[in-house]
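User:
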Amino acid sequence: MRLPNGVFNPYTGIKTNILFFTKGQPTKETWFYEHPYPEGVKNYSKTKPMKFEEFQAEIDWWGSEADGFASCQQNNQAWKVSNDEIIARNFNLDIKNPYQGETVSHDPDEPLAQYQSQQQDISQLRHQLSDILAAALAGNKGAN
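Assistant: Predicted structure:
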């Protein structure tokens, strides 16, 4: 399942893939399902997170293991890839949705928001690194 940008903000703003396996059966093909943003949503954030109800389309599409997931059909959100193709891609599972063209946003606020989020992430990491270095240096002073 490919989740859109912002699902795990503030930790990362990039798309995230979740893998599911059926225990005891060899994988013959890999299904991808791209979760779309709901109507009117451009991005998820800490204050506007993804909601469980938004997964109803995936639940309906997924179906049941009892019938071998027979309800899984390719559509604009779902596609499958053979093992041979995955092997040819050197096991890179970052496979774009073949039914969706490249989306280009002309909203100037989007790159600015991404930049601000990245700067916050960088600042947080810089503070964490500073704390780690300070603790390490404090530990070395006590050893002398």
